[in-house]
Amino acid sequence: MSVGAMKDQWYPVGLISGVTEEGRDSLLLGEPIRIFLDGGTPAVTGEGERPLPVELRYGHVWTCPGTPTRPLFDIPEADQLGRRLVDVGVCRVRCSPLRAVENFLDIAHFPFVHTDILGSEPHTEVTRYEVGIREDVDEVWATKVQFFQPQAAKSAEGGITTDYMYRVCAPTCSVLYKTSPPMPGEWDVIALFVQPLTETLCDVWPWMALYDDDASMTDLIHFQQLIFVQDRSVLENQLPALLPLDPGMEIPTRADLTSVAYRRWLKRNGFTYGAQLVAA
């Protein structure tokens, strides 16, 4: 499939702290890239050593294999004092990069995949919430989401009803805002930055901006890695491998409102690398 409009988007390709003089080779949308230090500053080249634009933000190196159509999205919480900024690392997943984002948006799987952490039976109902595309920023937002969680965060003590907001700010990037147990009235931020290696293989770079003065950085990282490893086994067994964009290919439920909006938004913008457009 042609990379189409997705070639002009920004993608994470590594942690800033992990870039070395020797550099490393990787893939982006099926094309070879190289990430390295150039005069002490991270740089990225594409095929034929073509220099690619670079942004250093949220602990990661970002690049665009084409011509950026807009600046890298903003997460204002990254600059707020008192937050712990957590670079979780990378998890390679054999799935469509779009599947990885859609799974992140799915709250209904919490009791069944993240049992006794993010969800538990019999608390399986997804109550009505609101979702739409904010035309001024061209992002998908889901608001007024609530779900009971036995352990909403590493710092949580006992179960709470957690408030959520989901934001899709790029075809392979999503940001979750959720109740902060130690800081009532504020949101913890958990982002999923996905690097599409190919249409069926991706590197996932989770990142967090939290209010948590008690847990060690290692514990915060391990907690989030545990959550995503649980997701990986599900993602790697989903069929079809590519994310279906034809509304007739799968039957959504009320809990899938965000997924439906995400798929429509992808199709509208031509973000189809990793997608299946029509039934096989």
UniProtKB/TrEMBL annotation:
The keyword Phosphoprotein does not apply. InterPro entries: Cholesterol_7-desaturase, VanA_C_cat. It holds the Pfam family VanA_C. GO terms for molecular function: oxidoreductase activity. The keyword Oxidoreductase applies. It comes from the Bacteria. Residues 93-268 form the Vanillate O-demethylase oxygenase-like C-terminal catalytic domain. PANTHER family: 3-KETOSTEROID-9-ALPHA-MONOOXYGENASE, OXYGENASE COMPONENT, IRON-SULFUR DOMAIN CONTAINING PROTEIN. This is (2Fe-2S)-binding protein.
